[in-house]
Amino acid sequence: MNTLTPESKTAPRTKPVATDPAARMDPEKLALDMATRAVVARAALAPFSDIRRSIGLRAIADAIQAHQAAILAANDRDIANARASGRPAAFIDRLQLDESRLNAIIQAVRDVAGQDDPLGETIENWQAPSGVDIRQVRVPIGVLAVIYESRPNVTADAAALALRSGNAVILRGGSDSQHSSLALVEAIRAGLGEAGLPVDLVQHPNTTDRAFVGAVLTGLNGHIDLVIPRGGRDLVARVQADARVAVLGHLDGVCHAYVDKTVDADMARALILNAKMRRTGVCNALECLIIHADHLETLWPLIAADLEAAGCRLRGDARAEAHWPTVTSAADSDWGREFLDSIIAVKTVHSIEQAIDHIAQFGSGHTDMIVTANDQAAEQFLNAVDSAVVIVNATTGLSDGAEFGFGAEIGIATSRLHARGPVGARQLTTYKYQVRGTGQVRD
Predict the structure, then answer these.
(1) pTM
(2) Reduced to 3 states, what is the DSSP secondary structure of residue 249?
């Protein structure tokens, strides 16, 4: 663990507001200005110990608590605007903050503050044939840009994880959450200032102009090291298509559950209901139920009744439709669809192999689960399904950074490079090699 040094007691400080007023410069110039300040702030953070970063995180949590009334008032404005715009209920649920949700955000920041520091951790250590000692250690990535839709909790999660991992972050939330995001960032920057840390470690533009995002995706003269999009397919596709810098992808949460031939019926009913209806608007909510055909006359009607009693609408194939009266015929577009609503697609199969094939064809690589009493089937599913998170006999809702013990998450990465699954502080680091010798030369 690092120790507190006299040099690390102070840091450059600026006025703790979200950013300079957007009116002072156009979006492209604003983005470059913010990125430049982020680079300076991250360099200033480097000498600070993990203890100081933990103090900063606790100060952020205290500041969010102190700014609670302003944050909730800002969120009320966003909710009113969303309702006036005719946004659906699932969208408003993702956007809405109340005292309970804000307390959960505060607790997530405190949890991150209590985590072990990932920086300086030795990943591997060995002695090369030349006799030099080689150590692979974790270091910050640099400046992150997190582009997300209208989920205010991402604002605090991203800021906390960036600080824990020694990175600076430029945030750009959706226009529908602009007031909430700016209020949260103002509190976060106030906390950084109180802790004597560079406030430009966390920034959010006071503009909803899409040209700002376009400028960020250029990499801003090499100042942006990683872009993390969090949102729907259109957002992620745009970022991946336009970015000239590394992207940590987070695609749709088309999560599947397969109810195997051999299964505990009560467990299956409880897990399917929870995975689908706990919160329908989150990315780890169940979107497609795959059920073995042997259950069509027994377990399937019970599951269907459970879901309908909770307000879920069922869209199924011909066999599912034939065994429950209110199932409507699934369209081709319902397979592989992220409903983010009280709707579920239902597919019947005759084998685990057919279930795995369906997931391979229509899944998004996010989270998929099997409910089974057969250990061999469980292992086959774990090994054959190529998703970021594969679960046996537990809800897809557990595919979450907090549930994984990360304290918070920026998202669930569905790409295969750098990080995969819930992205916490450790996943926001890279590594370098430290080589120690005793005078070795090479012929």
Answers:
(1) 0.83
(2) coil
